[in-house]
Amino acid sequence: TESKTSVARGSLIILEGLDRSGKSSQCAKLVSYLQGKGLSVEAWRFPDRTTVIGQMISSYLSNESHLDDKVIHLLFSANRWEKRALMESKLTSGTTLIVDRYSYSGVAFSAAKGLDFQWCKAPEEGLIAPDLVLYLDIPPEKAAERGGYGTERYEKLEFQKKVAEHYYALRDSSWEVVDGCLKMESVEEQLREIAMNCISKCQNGKPLVN
Ligand code: T5A
Ligand code: NA
């Protein structure tokens, strides 16, 4: 029989946080830093709007379509499930994934609408568990100051406060909370160090779990 050469696996690293906490900016910076170190790294994001389900989500988010709260919740989850197999093969073949939002967004946003917390968590069970969740912590009021809240600012602020509460209820041992109010460069530096640590642990045999 042929002997398989085992490849050090990649890490599943998620960025989470309220709207405007800086996730997309930091994902891009972290990916280019890690690639510059010669590592195999890809930037992913959820929702992944490139699939058929992703297009339904995208049209819902831009108010072009209306969907029942439970239906959109399940579509967000299905959008992660349809990427699960590819995610697993990337990770096992040694590619690290830096992912902008994951199940935590799925649960926190839907629960903030009033859906039952446990009901929201159920369809996420069996997805690959992150090795690291980088939570960019920012008070909802501070996030609102970053702009984009428009005329419905108050309503959105109230909603973001609820999202924050649900995020806190979801914290687990994979989380590292980083102060998202610091200047961009400071956040960037902290994320680099925590991510490098995580990547080493995974390369050294930390198992991949569901
Ligand atoms: N959703 C998502 C669900 O309901 N269920 C789900 O399962 C999933 C996956 C779309 C929506 O879908 C919901 C959550 C969302 O409401 P999205 O497309 O990821 O999700 O959201 P976006 O609108 O693209 O991104 P955000 O608004 O969340 O912003 P980011 O990515 O957190 O922040 P970023 O990097 O774009 O920065 C925002 C602004 O702040 C500045 C930036 O320059 C930018 O102007 N900024 C800083 N300013 C000062 N100091 C810093 N440290 C700064 N960092 C960034
Ligand atoms: Na974003």
From TrEMBL:
Instruction: Report the InterPro entries cross-referenced here.
Output: P-loop_NTPase (IPR027417), Thymidylate_kin-like_dom (IPR039430), Thymidylate_kin_CS (IPR018095), Thymidylate_kinase (IPR018094)
Determine if Nucleotide-binding is one of this entry's keywords. Answer: yes
Domain (Thymidylate kinase-like) spans 15-190
Entry-linked CDD domains? TMPK
GO terms, molecular function: ATP binding; dTMP kinase activity; nucleoside diphosphate kinase activity
Q: Taxonomically, which superkingdom?
A: Eukaryota
Group of enzyme by EC: transferase
Name the PANTHER family for this protein.
THYMIDYLATE KINASE
Enzyme Commission no: 2.7.4.9
Pathway membership, UniProt: Pyrimidine metabolism; dTTP biosynthesis
The protein's UniProt keywords, in alphabetical order, are: ATP-binding, Kinase, Nucleotide biosynthesis, Nucleotide-binding, Transferase
- What family does the entry list? Belongs to the thymidylate kinase family.
Gene Ontology CC, one term? mitochondrion
Kinase among keywords: yes
One matching Pfam family: Thymidylate_kin
Q: Which GO terms describe its biological process?
A: dTDP biosynthetic process; dTTP biosynthetic process; dUDP biosynthetic process
**UniProt-recorded name of the protein:** Thymidylate kinase
